[in-house]
Design brief:
The chain is of the alpha+beta class. It is extended, with a radius of gyration of 19 Å. Helix 1 packs across helix 2. The longest helix is centred in the middle third of the chain and has 20 residues. It has a domain of 39 residues. The strands form two sheets. The protein has a three-stranded antiparallel sheet. Strands 3-4 form a two-stranded antiparallel ribbon.
Length: 109
C-alpha cells in the first residue's frame, strides 16, 4: 500500500468478543456474564435512541439522537428524484476529558 499512511500498523475494531473479554477481566464477571451485560447495555442504548432521547456515556461523551424529516433527494446514478423516508440520525458529542485523553493529556477517565 502506497501513501502517507502505509507505514502505520493496521488497527482493528474492538468487537463484542474482545470487549466482553476485557469487561470480564476488569469486573470479575464471567465471560458469559460480561457478554450478557454488553448485550443489555446495547439494547438499552438502542431503545433510548429510538425514543429520540440522548444517551450520556459519562466522560466519553453523549450520543445525540435527531429526527430527520422525510425528504426528496436527487439520485445522481439514476438521474431521478428519490423519496428518503423519515429517520433518526445519531451523532456523538465527545466529552472534554475524553478529548484530553485523545490529545495525550491523560486525564483520569
Amino acid at each position: 500500500m502506497d501513501g502517507a499512511y502505509s507505514d502505520q500498523p493496521k488497527l482493528y475494531a474492538l468487537n463484542k468478543v474482545e470487549f466482553s473479554r476485557r469487561l470480564a477481566a476488569k469486573t470479575g464477571l464471567s465471560q458469559s456474564e460480561a457478554q450478557a451485560a454488553y448485550d443489555a447495555a446495547l439494547e438499552i442504548i438502542a431503545e433510548t435512541v429510538l425514543e429520540q432521547r440522548n444517551v450520556s456515556l459519562g466522560r466519553i461523551g453523549t450520543l445525540i439522537a435527531k429526527k430527520k424529516a422525510a425528504r426528496t433527494a436527487h439520485s445522481p446514478s439514476k438521474g431521478e428524484q428519490v423519496d428518503v423516508p423519515e429517520r433518526i440520525a445519531l451523532s456523538i458529542r465527545v466529552g472534554e476529558k475524553f478529548k484530553k485523553l485523545l490529545r495525550g493529556e491523560a486525564p483520569d477517565i
